[in-house]
UniProtKB/TrEMBL annotation:
Residues 1-29, 357-378 are annotated as: Disordered. This is Flagellar biosynthetic protein FlhB. The gene is flhB. One of its GO terms (biological process) is bacterial-type flagellum assembly. Belongs to the type III secretion exporter family. It is found in: Cell membrane. The chain crosses the membrane at residues 35-56, 99-119, 152-171, 191-213. It comes from Oceanospirillum linum. Keywords: Bacterial flagellum biogenesis, Bacterial flagellum protein export, Cell membrane, Cell projection, Cilium, Flagellum, Membrane, Protein transport, Transmembrane, Transmembrane helix, Transport.
Amino acid sequence: MAKENEDGQEKTEDPTPKRIQEAREKGDVPRSKDLNTMLLTLVAAAALLTLGPIIAEALKDVFRYNFSIDRVDLFDTQGMFRHLTHSAKESLMGMLPTMAVLVLATLIAPISLGGWNFSTKALAPKFSRLNPIEGIKRLFSLNSLVELFKSIAKVSVVGVSAVLVFLAYRMELPYLAWMAPEYAFGRMVEILAWVAIWVSSSLILIVLIDVPFQLHQYNEKMRMTLQEVKDEMKNTEGKPEVKGRIRQLQREMANRRMMSDVPQADVIITNPTHYAVALKYDDAGEIGAPELLAKGGDELAMKIREIAEANDIPVLQIPPLSRAIYYSTEIGDVIPEGLYMAVAQVLAYVYQLKQSKSGKAGHPGKAPSPEIPSEYKK
């Protein structure tokens, strides 16, 4: 069953990218404490296993140095201070590589789920957390119940793993006290590293349950109602009524610009009533092909014809060619090569009409009916 918001509406919609981005800006990203703990302890154990010989060697040097104290140093406070300083320095240098790996793991482990995210809003105090009623609700929430079962499971799993590891090394541990220090230190660090690895690996079972649960909880928390999605779209893209009005105004402006170009046309080809296209041919231009200045259907086609008649532009009724140009060519583009021959016949006829009007030639007769390639027929 889908969750409900404060208004009682069901959250049935997946979160939008904008909602997820806003949540990240507030520092709200999916996290798994158990995943962080497991990765950190595994890295620490691996570092101890790999860099353990360095730590063991440093400890051996410290013990060797401090168990071979001169009688004079025993009664010299400065001598004892030198021993303390030297021991601290050697211990720090021996553990420094392991500490550097741990610091790096501490920075990387939290971003293994949810990625890197820094938000100043997350640092702001939330006084709602001081509300005792809200605190009681969180205490008895499903998430708290899950955390309780997880804690019990972690203690059980880690406890069983620790017991099994102890049983595996129970025969060897007493002998460490009888081994020479130079061997005992190295073996002790190695055993500690393997114990940490096995105990940390047992947390994988918890992580395999916790990570999907955290992702599910986060997705459920981010889910939105249908009304929230609609409101976000309105705020982001504007109201549909406003967008529709803007598109209408843009179309009107484009039509006005287009109509202002109609008087420059050489010929208007019509359907005769449903379509009208205005062509211009400039043989001195760079393209050298007829260009579509305007096109329209129904009322817009009628307006194009009216402007053409007012400017004494020839209007020819050639339905197949008008439809072919209308559907295949955009305003400002030249006509396709497949229509060159048909348009050429029309332009030749228009040229003869002009010659006839100037008295240089007779009337060319009936308008041509050029053949239209099948791929342009509509």
